[in-house]
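[step 3/7] inverse_fold.run input=structure_tokens len=158
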């Protein structure tokens, strides 16, 4: 019970720091935020987030309940600060997954492609939007580029 209370207290103390707006991160020249958790009197690293000079997240590290590195995710951004590539590595720096993203002229995500460690496409999401920028559909393809599912969005107005 004491362990759960400690984790909850730490969560509520750390969350406001981590959820700082990009503007605040940039304004204060914050380069990283490290979260620690105290378990049974031991202070262990839980996660670390690294920012670029514009306050954008460029790397995230996640740790297990013993403070050992589990995974690292690195982000590549375009000139609009949209994520165009995510690379997820395990603790030994072996690539686990790559995700690439494409955007339209409104900076709306139009495509997400997921690749395995051998750079073979596993799945892909394709998004369509209306002239107002509202999402109309999300089509999911498998690694063979065949449609698996399609989600349609409709909107009600007053």
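[step 3/7] decode complete -> sequence:
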């Amino acid at each position: 019970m004491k362990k759960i209370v400690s984790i909850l207290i730490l969560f509520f103390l750390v969350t406001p720091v981590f959820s700082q707006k990009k503007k605040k991160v940039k304004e204060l020249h914050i380069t990283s935020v490290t979260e620690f958790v105290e378990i049974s009197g031991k202070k262990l690293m839980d996660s670390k987030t690294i920012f670029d000079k514009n306050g954008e997240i460029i790397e995230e590290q996640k740790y297990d309940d013993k403070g050992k590195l589990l995974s690292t995710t690195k982000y590549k951004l375009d000139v609009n600060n949209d994520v165009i590539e995510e690379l997820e590595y395990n603790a030994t720096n072996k690539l686990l997954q790559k995700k690439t993203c494409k955007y339209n002229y409104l900076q709306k995500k139009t495509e997400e492609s997921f690749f395995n460690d051998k750079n073979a496409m596993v799945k892909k999401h394709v998004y369509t939007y209306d002239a107002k920028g509202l999402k109309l559909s999300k089509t999911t393809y498998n690694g063979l580029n065949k449609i698996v599912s399609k989600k349609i969005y409709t909107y009600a107005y007053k």
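[step 4/7] annotate
The first strand starts at residue 32 and ends at 39.
Strands lie at 32-39, 42-51, 57-63, 69-77, 83-90, 95-103, 109-115, 121-129, 135-142, 147-152.
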